[in-house]
Amino acid sequence: MTGTRWLDEHEQRTWRAYLAMNARLNARLHRQLQADSGLSLADFDVLVQLTDRPDGRARISELAGAMQWEKSRLSHHLGRMLRRGLIAREECPEDARGAFAVVTEQGRDAIEQAAPRHVETVRELLFDQLDTDQVDALGTIADAVLDRLDDPRA
Fold first, then answer.
1. Angle 143-145-150 from CA coordinates, rounded to 5°
2. For residue 92, what are the β-bridge partners?
3. Range of the domain at 137
4. 5 belongs to a structural domain
5. Number of domains in the chain
6. CATH code at position 108
7. Predicted confidence band of residue 1 (pLDDT cuts 50, 70, 90)
């Protein structure tokens, strides 16, 4: 086994800038959603996952995988969304232990009202600062890292 491959100064500065950017961007997006719509960023993410599906429903296990959340964390969050009327829960006829999360009309209305301002904020905080080449580079970087994360050997 070889020694640890420490980050050099440039890599460490870049890594820390990325972490700070990610934390601050997520915090600002969360605050904007809360202020404008009463939705959390997590609520918005769940509603996006559901409304992107033609039938507006997903098995809870699929949703947990898509969001990279533990099932217990997602179940607790879905419970809060259920109490607020944003989603419904349906039992799975093929699997007595399985269940579906289903977006309600109230949930659909909430995301439709929240999405325009959310997209404006994403554009204002991220994309308006970048030129076309930088957007392309960001997409290339994201794809490369995602490919690595999806590699079962990683």
1. 90
2. 95
3. 13-149
4. no
5. 1
6. 1.10.10.10
7. low
